[in-house]
Amino acid sequence: MPRNRNILNVVAVCCAVLLGPTIAAAQDKPDPGAKAIATRHGFMKLVIWEAGPLFGMAKGIDTLPAATNDAPAHDLPVLFRLRRGLGLWKALYMDYAPFTPIPGADSQVNRGAYLVTGPGHCGECHTPRDLLGGPDADWAFSGSPAPEEKDSVPNITPHEDGIGDWSVRDITIALELGLLPGFDTFGGVMIPVQENMAKLTAEDREAIAAYLKSLPPKPSRWKK
Ligand code: HEC
Questions:
Q1: Alpha carbon 10 to chain centroid distance?
Q2: How far is residue 116 from each of residues 53, 120, 209, measured CA to CA in Å?
Q3: Which ligand 1 atom is nearest residue 163's CA?
Q4: pLDDT value at residue 148
Q5: Domain limits of the chain?
């Protein structure tokens, strides 16, 4: 048994050494030699991931064949292409703190909070941004203009503008099957998100629903 544990430790250390750089890059940990990653990348949320799934993802990425195509040129506005400016942006908005459970919330709501704010990165679309493109925490999950689409991203707080009249079951059915109350279906960029949500366990979808229903209700500042 102790021998097995030693072997496991050796494997864990090797993984850390081999995959550490991939993980540090994914989380955009400070590295004076590396170029800053553009803010549209979801790295802000990767910081919140638990180590196990992050190792798994880094391992998966490292098995992919090297891409042979030329990367397309950036289409970001000039302001966001200045990498020195990105350092400033991160000083303003980047928080390297790991996930901290919500005091007083039960384990299901905390699991949902971890999934929504970390791997699910739901706020990257559903939280509006301020003038400098940082998430506007005061209006978290209350909806935002959709950058890629003509429409807006809906409010997913339990306000009447959002999902106030959805039950936990309505939310879990939507995440599992893409069917919304009123027989509508998800559209646009929410379709691939839902397809990934369908791969979670039922418990994790329920945890996400429980967390969304526990959020403070916020009115939407954007057209639904
Ligand atoms: C890539 C951007 C994006 C991400 C990430 C995202 N969403 Fe969405 N979401 C949308 C868009 C756009 C819609 C509206 C889709 C439509 O028009 O049917 C939407 C719709 C929804 C709705 C339906 C709201 C309503 O009133 O119809 C729910 C619930 C929802 N999202 C939950 C989530 C959850 C939970 C997550 C994280 C696991 C998430 N979304 C992540 C873009 C996103």
A1: 31
A2: 15, 5, 10
A3: 26
A4: 64
A5: 1-27+43-58+81-95, 99-224
Report the percentage of the chain scoring pLDDT > 70: 75
Q: Which atom of ligand 1 is nearest to the CA of 174?
A: 29
Query: Would the pTM of this model clear 0.85, i.e. be above it?
Result: no
Task: Say yes or no: CB of residue 200 within 6 Å of ligand 1.
Answer: no
Tokens 């030693």 -> residue: 6
Whether residue 221 contacts residue 126, with contact meaning beta carbons closer than 8 Å, is answered with no
143 within 8 A of 122, measured Cβ to Cβ: no
pLDDT, one tens digit per residue, over 101-134 is 999 999 999 999 999 999 999 998 999 988 888 8
Residue 219 has pLDDT above 90, yes or no: yes
**Residue 175 CA, ligand 1 centroid: distance in Å:** 9
